[in-house]
Design a protein that fits this description.
Strand order of the largest sheet: 2-1-3-4-5
Shape: elongated
Strand content: 25-35%
Largest sheet: 5 strands, parallel
Structural class: alpha/beta
Order of helices and strands: EHEHEHEHEHEEEEEHEEEEEH
């Protein structure tokens, strides 16, 4: 199920977005749970109580708590980097302010079904890709971990450490096999023993990367040019997806 929030103090806009999402349901093999908020305060209260949404359609200009303020609190105080923010507005003069809250798309009022569908499809594909799981077996237990939660794979002798946001799992495999399995995912082979998730790279230096958990991994000398080229390719690809 994909959870969607719609926040706008204009009831006609919220009804329009709900209607468009309803029209899209038949095109996706997925259930959509849509919640509507008529003020930034209502949405913030829900988020503060740990309600999670995959997508938030968010009006920029609202009374008291604006859409930009909600975005800042979501990314800052609430430490939520994964919810996709699609801003809805009839004004174009907020792009610099929006940059800091990592908007996924901008939907310009007035908007119609075709444009709405195009942007929604980008969001859906992004979520689908992010929710893809990596499956492995440790002992007699089969474990599935969402790709988005994996920070990196570490090879030690014949063992692989799967380092996730919350845990470390160990099983027997070769790193090359993992690279082959995840060829379509956004990972970078920075060292013969480390395969890191691009989405968790916070700092890229010529000789090391720092991940979202603060862990520093050295880039092998032989791979430094390759890593920088791969990083720029992935960064460019993701930026193009967000246009």
């Amino acid at each position: 199920m994909i959870k969607i929030a719609v926040c706008d103090d204009n009831i006609l806009i919220t009804q329009k977005i709900e209607f468009y999402i309803h029209n899209l349901c038949k095109n996706y093999g997925e259930n959509f749970d849509v919640q509507v908020f008529y003020s930034g305060e209502q949405l913030y209260k829900s988020l503060y109580q740990n309600e999670y949404f995959d997508i938030i359609y968010l009006d920029i200009e609202m009374y008291e708590l604006s859409g930009i303020s909600i975005g800042r609190q979501l990314r800052g105080e609430l430490k939520n980097e994964s919810t996709l923010l699609i801003y809805v507005s009839s004004f174009d003069n907020y792009f610099i302010e929006l940059f800091e809250v990592q908007p996924f798309r901008f939907l310009h009022k007035p908007f119609y079904q075709n444009e709405f569908n195009r942007i929604f499809n980008y969001a859906y594909q992004h979520i689908f890709k992010r929710n893809t799981c990596f499956e492995f077996k440790t002992g007699q237990t089969i474990i599935k971990q969402p790709i988005k939660n994996i920070l990196y794979f570490e090879s030690r002798n014949r063992e692989i450490n799967v380092v996730t946001i919350n845990n470390i799992y160990t099983y027997y495999d070769k790193l090359q096999n993992i690279v082959d399995k995840l060829a379509q995912q956004d990972f970078i082979w920075v060292h013969k023993s480390y395969y890191v998730n691009f989405d968790h790279v916070q700092v890229l230096n010529y000789t090391f990367v720092i991940l979202s958990n603060g862990h520093k991994i050295n880039i092998s000398e032989q791979r430094r040019s390759f890593v920088r080229n791969e990083y720029m390719k992935l960064k460019g690809k993701n930026q193009n997806e967000n246009v």
